[in-house]
């Protein structure tokens, strides 16, 4: 009888080695890129959408390179202090790699980079756990946007509905979500059915490093002041 693949023993030392090799390859890639590009930025992101980010990444591929992943690995790559940074002053960048952040290395002029990041904005349907940006309430009465086949599904989402002569009808007012509160799985599904997009994928520049200078952007500076207060 052939051995089951499920019973195959995997050496932990091998998996640890692969993990270490992967981290080392990222560190080396960042260090090589840091020698290639003129400017290095730290940016933060909110409501990440992988497909949209991939499109943005491809758009800038000829002149730039992005790195996302473990902040600690990226910190090691650029250097955590003046004694181990790979280019003079680059260690200042590592201190700002925290939370949802990434590295952007580029040869583009500063003004063009700022314009690209400031203009980048993609709206999408909010996911479970996202905070509702507004209150959405459906009033009692017919819901003409839904076909009669949808009635059982809507009931499963907690909506007080029934079929009235083949038309989906809300028997009482129903609050889908409250502004400022996290969305439940049911609320997220209903908002998608209603075509209401509450999530906005944005990128924010935190700082810029170049061989000549280091700049902390105003928004990041304000956040730093709040944290230190």
Automatic annotation (TrEMBL):
Residues 126-196 form the Large ribosomal subunit protein uL10-like insertion domain. GO terms for biological process: nuclear-transcribed mRNA catabolic process; ribosomal large subunit assembly; rRNA processing. The keyword Cytoplasm applies. It is found in: Cytoplasm; Nucleus, Nucleolus. One of its GO terms (molecular function) is RNA binding. The keyword Acetylation does not apply. Keywords: Cytoplasm, Nucleus, Ribosome biogenesis. GO terms for cellular component: cytoplasm; nucleolus; preribosome, large subunit precursor. Associates with the pre-60S ribosomal particle. PANTHER family: MRNA TURNOVER PROTEIN 4 HOMOLOG, MRNA TURNOVER PROTEIN 4 MRTO4. Component of the ribosome assembly machinery. Nuclear paralog of the ribosomal protein P0, it binds pre-60S subunits at an early stage of assembly in the nucleolus, and is replaced by P0 in cytoplasmic pre-60S subunits and mature 80S ribosomes. Belongs to the universal ribosomal protein uL10 family. This is Ribosome assembly factor mrt4. The gene is LOC111308661.
């Amino acid at each position: 009888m052939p051995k089951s693949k499920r019973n195959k023993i995997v050496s932990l030392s091998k998996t640890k080695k692969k993990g270490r090799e992967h981290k080392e390859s990222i560190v080396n890639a960042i260090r090589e890129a840091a020698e290639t590009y003129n400017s290095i930025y730290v940016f933060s992101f909110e409501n990440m959408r992988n497909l949209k980010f991939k499109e943005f990444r491809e758009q800038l591929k000829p002149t730039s390179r992005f790195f996302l992943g473990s902040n600690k690995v990226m910190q090691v790559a650029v250097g955590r202090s003046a004694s181990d940074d790979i280019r003079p002053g680059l260690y200042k960048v590592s201190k700002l790699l925290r939370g949802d952040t990434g590295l952007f290395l580029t040869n583009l002029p500063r003004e063009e980079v700022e314009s690209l990041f400031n203009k980048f904005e993609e709206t999408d349907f909010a996911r479970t756990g996202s905070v509702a940006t507004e209150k959405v309430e459906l009033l009692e009465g017919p819901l003409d946007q839904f076909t009669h086949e949808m009635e059982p599904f809507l009931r499963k989402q907690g909506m007080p509905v029934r079929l009235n002569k083949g038309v989906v009808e809300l028997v009482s007012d129903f609050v889908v979500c409250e502004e400022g509160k996290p969305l439940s799985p049911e609320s997220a599904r209903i908002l998608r059915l209603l075509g209401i997009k509450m999530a906005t994928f944005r990128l924010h520049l935190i700082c810029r490093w170049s061989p000549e200078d280091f700049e902390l952007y105003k928004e990041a500076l304000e956040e730093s002041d709040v944290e230190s207060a």
